[in-house]
């Protein structure tokens, strides 16, 4: 028994050294797995948050974040997942491309509409799969949803919104200039 445990530990350490994690995975959320206590963020994709609500085609809310996590858990089942390390994120999680049963999990999530291509972090390889999911109205694409933005995206969005507000204020001022004399004449 001692030799078996030693052999298993050596194989495990070799796998970790080579950047490969294997085992049954539990789903943390739509783009994060855990294998033997190691958190793995799926590379190149961004899923809706577990607590996120989306709107279906008729505008009715539905728990898209939970459904994305459940879809991933159902897809993985009890099968062995193999993850190839690509790096580490700012939270210390392993960032990886994972496979189960010969299928790339990252791509599958995008194809099914449960995740978006995270272009800022290499996800441009998934853009065609995303276009197809969107065209077929799969997953979150069946209605509308809020796509989370990276921190840089928030800054860019704020700048866009501030500029839009300035333009709106200028248009409002011009409209008042035109309308106020007309209102005085009628009054």
What does this structure look like?
The protein is elongated. The protein is built from five helices and ten strands. By secondary structure, it is α+β, with helices and mostly antiparallel strands. Residues 4-17 and 149-154 have low confidence and may be disordered.
Overall number of strands: 10
Mean pLDDT: 84
Put simply, the count of helices is 5
The helix/strand class is: alpha+beta
**Named CATH architecture of the largest domain:** Beta Barrel
Strand order of the largest sheet: 1-2-3-8-7
User: Could you tell me how far the N terminus lies from the C terminus, measured between alpha carbons in angstroms?
Assistant: 99 Å
Shape call: elongated
Estimated helix fraction? 40-55%
* Sheet of most strands: 5 strands, mixed, barrel
Over the alpha carbons, how many angstroms does the gyration radius reach? 24 Å
Poorly predicted regions are: 4-17, 149-154
Number of domains: 2
* CATH domain topology of the largest domain: OB fold (Dihydrolipoamide Acetyltransferase, E2P)
Beta percentage is 25-35%
Order of helices and strands: HEEEEEEHEEEHEHH
Summarize the structure.
The chain contains five helices and ten strands, in the order αββββββαβββαβαα.
Describe this protein with a few key phrases:
about 190 residues; alpha+beta; elongated; about 25% strand; two-stranded antiparallel ribbon; 5-stranded mixed beta barrel; 2 domains
């Amino acid at each position: 028994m001692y030799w078996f445990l030693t052999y298993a530990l050596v194989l495990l350490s070799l796998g970790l050294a080579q950047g490969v994690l294997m085992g049954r995975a539990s789903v943390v959320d739509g783009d994060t797995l855990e294998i033997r206590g190691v958190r793995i963020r799926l590379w190149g994709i961004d899923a809706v948050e577990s607590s996120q609500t989306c709107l279906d085609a008729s505008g009715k809310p539905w728990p898209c974040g939970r459904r994305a996590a459940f879809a991933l858990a159902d897809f993985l089942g009890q099968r062995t997942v193999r993850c190839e390390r690509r790096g580490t994120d700012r939270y210390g999680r392993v960032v990886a491309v994972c496979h189960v049963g010969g299928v790339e999990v990252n791509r599958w999530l995008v194809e099914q509409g449960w995740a978006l291509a995270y272009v800022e972090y290499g996800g441009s390889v998934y853009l065609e799969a995303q276009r197809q999911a969107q065209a077929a109205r799969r997953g979150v694409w069946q209605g509308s949803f809020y796509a989370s933005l990276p921190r840089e995206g928030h800054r860019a969005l704020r700048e866009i919104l501030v500029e839009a507000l300035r333009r709106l204020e200028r248009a409002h001022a011009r409209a008042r200039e035109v309308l106020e004399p007309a209102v005085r004449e009628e009054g």
